[in-house]
Structures are given as C-alpha cells and as structure tokens.
UniProtKB/TrEMBL annotation:
Protein name: NADH dehydrogenase [ubiquinone] 1 alpha subcomplex assembly factor 4
Organism of origin: Cepphus grylle (Black guillemot)
GO terms, biological process: mitochondrial respiratory chain complex I assembly
Region Disordered, annotated ranges: 17-41
GO cellular component annotations of the record: mitochondrion
Bias type Basic and acidic residues, positions: 17-27
Protein family (similarity comment): Belongs to the NDUFAF4 family.
Alphabetized PANTHER family for the sequence: NADH DEHYDROGENASE [UBIQUINONE] 1 ALPHA SUBCOMPLEX ASSEMBLY FACTOR 4 (PTHR13338:SF4), UPF0240 PROTEIN (PTHR13338)
Pfam families: UPF0240 (PF06784)
Subunit structure: Binds calmodulin. Interacts with NDUFAF3.
Length: 170
C-alpha cells in the first residue's frame, strides 16, 4: 500500500517538471587553469630539442660519481631479549586414546588433552583409592592443586541402563 502511494507522488506531473529543468539556463563552468608548461613546449621546438639532447659533459660527470654504502654496526639493546622465549616448552607424550590419527601426540608439561582428562576423571570415579590426586599429578605431570580442583569441579557423566521391567514401573 505504501509503495503505491509513494509512486503516485513520484510520478505526479513528471513531464512538466522535466521540461522546467531542461529549459533552465545552464550555469557557466568555472574557468580552467591553463596548463602553461605543456602548451609552451609544444609551440617551441628548440626547447624540445634541448630536453632530448644528451649533454656529454654531464654524462662524464655522472660516470665519475661512485657511491659506496656501508651498514652501521649492529647494536644489541640491553634487555632486548625479554620478548624471546628463554627455553623451549617441555613436552610429554600423551596416553593415546582410540581416535588414532586424530589424537594429540604431544602435550606441554602441566597440561592434558581432552582424552586424558576424561580418562583420569573416569579412573578416579571408578577406583578413587588407586587413582588419588597425588598419583594423577605424578602420572600426567600436573600440579597437585590443579588436580584437586579438576577432581572437585569436573564429574564425568554416568550412563545408567534400566532393565525393561523397571522401565514400566517408572
């Protein structure tokens, strides 16, 4: 509905408005700046010859010029090595999961892969006496504080299957 209304106002009296714009006097264009250098060269052939003529005296002077470039000695800034790593991160081999090529092969010390995290959480849940926080920290090269936090706040899901006769009772 709105499109029809705007189209009516847009097309109202179009021809007379167009004639009015066409019949208006055209504004005079601004004066153009003369390109003096190019025009003068075209009218004076002796200047053109002077430009394209080789000057032997200048060529011999140019051949005598010899430029020798030397780099300044490299200065090492004091404390400039702050941005460079002091040593390479130590890596450890992971306890591989069952994904084959998709498994992460090496992990920095102090970190674990997702497969390892799920494995150690499940081991701790099934056998908490064997898989204590201290043993997990030693086994996976982690800090004891981080392992305690991991075991406290992350719990793996438990899948429970109900027998068929119990499902009807639920």
């Amino acid at each position: 509905m709105g499109g029809r209304l705007t189209r009516v106002f847009r097309t109202f009296n179009v021809e007379s408005r167009a004639r009015r714009e066409i019949s208006k006097e055209k504004p005079t264009p601004a004066p153009r700046h003369p390109t003096s250098r190019l025009d003068e060269l075209a009218h004076h052939p002796e200047i053109q010859e002077e430009i394209y003529r080789k000057d032997d005296r200048l060529l011999t002077l140019l051949k005598d010029v010899y430029v020798e470039s030397r780099d300044p000695p490299v200065q090492v800034k004091v404390g400039g090595g702050e941005h460079l790593p002091c040593k390479q991160e130590e890596k450890r081999l992971t306890k591989l999961g069952n994904l084959g090529d998709l498994d992460v092969k090496k992990v920095p010390k102090g970190r674990i892969s997702i497969v390892e995290a799920l494995t150690l959480l499940n081991n701790h849940k099934l056998h908490p006496q064997i898989w204590t926080a201290e043993k997990i920290a030693v086994e996976y090269s982690l800090e004891l504080k981080e392992v305690n936090s991991l075991l406290e706040f992350f719990i793996p899901f438990a899948v429970q299957e109900f027998p068929k006769e119990t499902k009807k009772a639920i």
